[in-house]
From TrEMBL:
Membership in a protein family: Belongs to the SEC10 family.
Keywords: Coiled coil, Exocytosis, Transport
Record has Acetylation as a keyword: no
Cellular component annotations (GO), alphabetically ordered: exocyst
Coiled-coil residue windows: 10-48
Residue intervals of the Exocyst complex component Sec10-like alpha-helical bundle domain: 118-669
Listed InterPro entries: Sec10-like, Sec10_HB, Sec10_N
Pfam families: Sec10_HB (PF07393), Sec10_N (PF20667)
Protein name (database record): Exocyst complex component 5
Name of the gene encoding the protein in the UniProt record: Exoc5
Gene Ontology process terms (BP): exocytosis; Golgi to plasma membrane transport
PANTHER family assigned to the protein according to its UniProt record, in alphabetical order: EXOCYST COMPLEX COMPONENT 5 (PTHR12100:SF0), SEC10 (PTHR12100)
C-alpha cells in the first residue's frame, strides 16, 4: 500500500510539473512578444522625436530670423521716431519762442499755476537755447532773452516760494517735486539755503546751543534724504552753517567777555566750549556727510577756535604762574610771614654747616616759632590747578605741541610747589635748627620732613597720573624724569643736612642729664637706704628719647627711618657712655647705674636696630664691672660680651669704683 501510494504521488507530481512547465513556456512566449512590440514602439518614438527636433530647429531659425527683422524694424522706427519727437519738441519750443517774441504768453502751460513743473522745464530749455545763440543772433532777438530771462527768474522765484510754503506746511512729497525741478536751475543752491534757514527757525530756543544743534541735525538727517537727491551735501551745508554762524557767534560771545579781564574764567570757558564742540562733532560723525567727514568737521572746529588756540599755552602758563604765586602769598600772609631769601650755597651754606656742627656763635638761627611753613591746603590747591591745566593742555594743544606744553606746565609746578614751597620750608627749617648747646630747643625740622615727605608723594602721584600719559611717547619723557630726579636729589641733600637735628637732640639730653643727674645718685650717703629703682635723670632721658624715636618714625619712611635711628642710637649710646664715665660708683651706686643702663637698653629696643641694642648690651655688661667682687673681675672681663673689648675700656670702668685704689682690687685687676 505504501509503495502504491508513493507511486501515485510521484505520478501526480509529474503531471503537475508538466502543467506548470507548459504555463511557463506560454508566459515566456507572451513576454517575448510584448518585448518585440515595445522595441518597435520605442523605435517609432525615436523617429517621431527626430522629426520633432528637426521641426524645432527650423522653428528656432525662423524665430531668430523674425526677431532680427523685428529688431531691425524697431531700430528703423526709432530712427524715424526720435527725430520726429525732437521735431515735435522743437516745434513746441518754437511756438513758445514765438510767444516770447510777441511778448504775450498764451499757452496754458504758462498761465496755469498747476503746470509749473512743465513750465519750468520749458523755460529751462529756452534759457539754455538763449545762452547758446551767437551774439549777432542774440542782438536780432534782443527782446527774447530779456523776456525769457525775466520769466526764468520769475519762475525760479515762484518755485522757491512754492518750496518754502511746502516746507512750512510739512509736505515732504511736494518739497521733493519742487526740489527735483529746481535741480536744473541756477537757484537750486538758493533753495538749499532757504531750506537750511527755515530748518533753524525756532531750533535754538534753549540755553544749550550744542544740544539744540545735535537735535536739529538728527531731525534734518531723517528728512533730507526724502527731499533732495544729494542729501549728504545738503546736510553738510547745514552743519557748516551751524558751525560758522551759530556756534562761532556763541563761542565768541563767551570768550571775548573774559579774554582780557579774567584768565581763569576764559580758560574754563575755552576748555568747556572746545570739549562740547568736539563732542558735538563726534555725534555728527554718525551721519553721511560725504567721503572725508572727519577732515570736514575738524576744519570747522579749527575755523572757530584757531584764534584762541594759537596762544592758548601762553595764557595757560601766565594764569598758572599768577595763580600759584597768589596761593603761596595768601598762605604766607595768613601766617604773618615775610618770605625771606635764604642762601643755599657759598659762604652762607658754609656758615650754616659750621654753626650746626660746632658751638661757634656765627649768628643766631631763625626762630620759626614751631611753624613748618608747609600747608596741605596750599599743596592741594596747587596740584588741583596744575591738574586742570594738564587736562586743558591735553584737550586744547595740537598733538605735535602737547609734550612741549605739558613740560612747561610741569616746570611751573616744580617752581612753585617744589622750589618756592617745599624747598623754602626745608631751607627755613634748616636755618631754624638750634645749636646743640641750646636749652629747651624745639625741634621742628622733623615736622617739616614729615610734611615734605607727604607732599612729595602727592606730587609724585600727579606726575604719574596726569603728566606721564601726555609725554610717555615723546623725547620730553626723559627730560621730565631727569628734572624730577634732580628735585629729589636736591631735597635729599637738604634732608641729609637736617640730620644735624640729632645734635640738638643729644644736646637736649645732655642738658637733662646735667640738670637731673647728681653725684650722690651713684655714691649715696646711706648705702642701706636706697629706695629708687633708677635715677630721675634716666627717667626723663628715656621719655625724651622715646618721643624723638616716634617723631622720626612718623616723619620719614622706608630706609630713611633705619638710617636716622641708627645714627641717633649710636649717638645716644656714646652720650650715655661718656656720661657714666663722669662719676664714681659705690657698690649700691653701681647697682643703680646698672638699673639705669637696663632702662636705657629697654629704650634702645624701640629703635629696632640690632647695632644699637648690641651697644647697650655691651654697656650693660661693662656696668657689671662696677659691682662685681674683686675676685671675680677677671672672670667677668673674659665673658662673652667683654672678651673682645679693649683692655683700656675695661680698665676705665673699673677705675670708676670707689674702692679701685684698694690694693686688693688693683692687684686682682692687674
Amino acid at each position: 500500500r505504501l509503495l502504491e501510494e508513493f507511486v501515485n504521488h510521484i505520478q501526480e507530481l509529474q503531471v503537475m510539473d508538466e502543467r506548470i512547465q507548459r504555463k511557463v513556456e506560454k508566459l515566456e512566449q507572451q513576454c517575448q512578444k510584448e518585448a518585440k512590440e515595445f522595441a518597435k514602439k520605442v523605435q517609432e518614438l525615436q523617429k517621431s522625436n527626430q522629426v520633432a527636433f528637426q521641426h524645432f530647429q527650423e522653428l528656432d531659425e525662423h524665430i531668430s530670423y523674425v526677431a532680427t527683422k523685428v529688431c531691425h524694424l524697431g531700430d528703423q522706427l526709432e530712427g524715424v521716431n526720435t527725430p520726429r519727437q525732437r521735431a515735435v519738441e522743437a516745434q513746441k519750443l518754437m511756438k513758445y519762442f514765438n510767444e516770447f517774441l510777441d511778448g504775450e504768453l498764451k499757452s496754458d502751460v504758462f498761465t496755469n499755476s498747476e503746470k509749473i513743473k512743465e513750465a519750468a522745464d520749458i523755460i529751462q530749455k529756452l534759457h539754455l537755447i538763449a545762452q547758446e545763440l551767437p551774439f549777432d543772433s542774440l542782438m536780432d532777438f534782443c527782446c527774447y532773452p530779456l523776456s525769457s530771462l525775466g520769466k526764468y527768474h520769475d519762475l525760479e522765484c515762484q518755485l522757491i516760494q512754492e518750496f518754502t510754503s511746502a516746507q512750512r506746511r510739512g509736505e515732504i512729497s511736494r518739497m521733493r517735486e519742487v526740489a527735483a525741478v529746481l535741480l536744473h536751475f541756477k537757484g537750486y543752491s538758493h533753495c538749499v539755503d532757504v531750506y537750511i534757514k527755515q530748518c533753524q527757525e525756532g531750533a535754538f530756543r534753549r540755553n544749550d546751543v550744542f544740544e539744540d544743534a545735535a537735535i536739529l541735525c538728527q531731525r534734518v538727517n531723517k528728512q533730507v534724504g526724502e527731499v533732495f537727491s544729494n542729501p549728504e551735501t545738503v546736510l553738510a551745508k547745514l552743519i557748516q552753517n551751524i558751525f560758522e554762524v551759530k556756534l562761532q557767534s556763541y563761542v565768541k560771545d563767551q570768550l571775548e567777555e573774559h579774554r582780557k579781564s579774567d584768565a581763569e574764567q576764559y580758560l574754563k570757558n575755552l576748555y568747556d566750549l572746545y570739549t562740547r564742540t568736539t563732542n558735538l562733532s563726534s555725534k555728527l560723525m554718525e551721519f553721511n556727510l560725504g567721503t572725508d567727514k572727519q577732515t570736514f568737521l575738524s576744519k570747522l572746529i579749527k575755523s572757530i577756535f584757531i584764534s584762541y588756540l594759537e596762544n592758548y599755552i601762553e595764557v595757560e602758563i601766565g594764569y598758572l604762574k599768577n595763580r600759584s604765586a597768589m596761593i603761596l602769598q595768601r598762605y604766607y600772609d595768613s601766617k604773618n610771614h615775610q618770605k625771606r631769601s635764604i642762601g643755599t650755597g657759598g659762604i652762607q651754606d658754609l656758615k650754616e654747616r659750621i654753626r650746626q656742627r660746632t658751638n661757634l656763635p656765627l649768628g643766631p638761627s631763625i626762630d620759626t616759632h614751631g611753624e613748618t611753613f608747609l600747608s596741605q591746603e596750599v599743596v592741594v590747591n596747587l596740584l588741583q590747578e596744575t591738574k586742570q591745566a594738564f587736562e586743558r593742555c591735553h584737550r586744547l594743544s595740537d598733538p605735535s605741541d602737547l609734550p612741549k606744553n605739558a613740560f612747561r606746565i610741569f616746570s611751573m609746578l616744580v617752581e612753585f610747589l617744589c622750589t618756592e614751597h617745599i624747598d623754602y620750608a626745608l631751607e627755613t627749617g634748616l636755618a631754624g635748627i638750634p645749636s646743640s648747646d641750646s636749652k629747651n630747643a624745639n625741634l621742628y625740622f622733623l615736622d617739616v620732613v614729615h610734611q615734605a615727605n607727604t607732599i612729595f608723594h602727592l606730587f609724585d602721584k600727579q606726575f604719574n597720573d596726569h603728566l606721564m600719559p601726555l609725554i610717555s611717547s615723546s623725547p620730553k619723557l626723559s627730560e621730565c624724569l631727569q628734572k624730577k630726579k634732580d628735585i629729589i636729589e636736591q631735597m635729599e641733600v637738604k634732608l641729609d643736612m637736617g640730620i644735624d637735628t640729632l645734635n640738638c637732640m643729644i644736646g637736649q639730653m645732655k642738658h637733662i642729664l646735667a640738670a637731673e643727674q647728681k653725684k650722690t645718685d651713684f655714691k649715696p650717703e646711706d648705702e642701706n637706704n636706697v629706695l629708687i629703682q633708677y635715677t630721675n635723670a634716666c627717667v626723663k632721658v628715656c621719655g625724651y628719647v622715646r618721643k624723638q624715636v616716634e617723631k622720626v618714625r612718623n616723619s620719614m619712611d622706608g630706609k630713611n627711618v633705619d638710617t636716622v635711628l641708627m645714627e641717633f642710637g649710636v649717638r645716644f649710646h656714646r652720650l650715655i657712655y661718656e656720661h657714666l664715665q663722669q662719676y664714681s660708683y659705690s657698690c649700691m651706686g653701681g647697682m643703680l647705674a646698672i638699673c639705669d643702663v637696663a632702662e636705657y637698653r629697654k629704650c634702645a629696643k624701640d629703635f629696632k636696630i640690632a647695632l644699637v641694642l648690641q651697644l647697650f648690651d655691651t654697656l650693660h655688661a661693662l656696668c657689671n664691672l662696677l659691682v662685681v667682687a674683686p675676685d671675680n673681675l677677671k672672670q667677668v672681663c673674659s665673658g662673652e660680651q667683654l672678651a673682645n673689648l679693649d683692655k683700656n675700656i675695661l680698665h676705665s670702668f673699673v677705675q670708676l669704683r670707689v674702692d679701685y685704689r684698694s690694693a686688693r682690687l688693683a692687684r686682682h685687676f692687674s
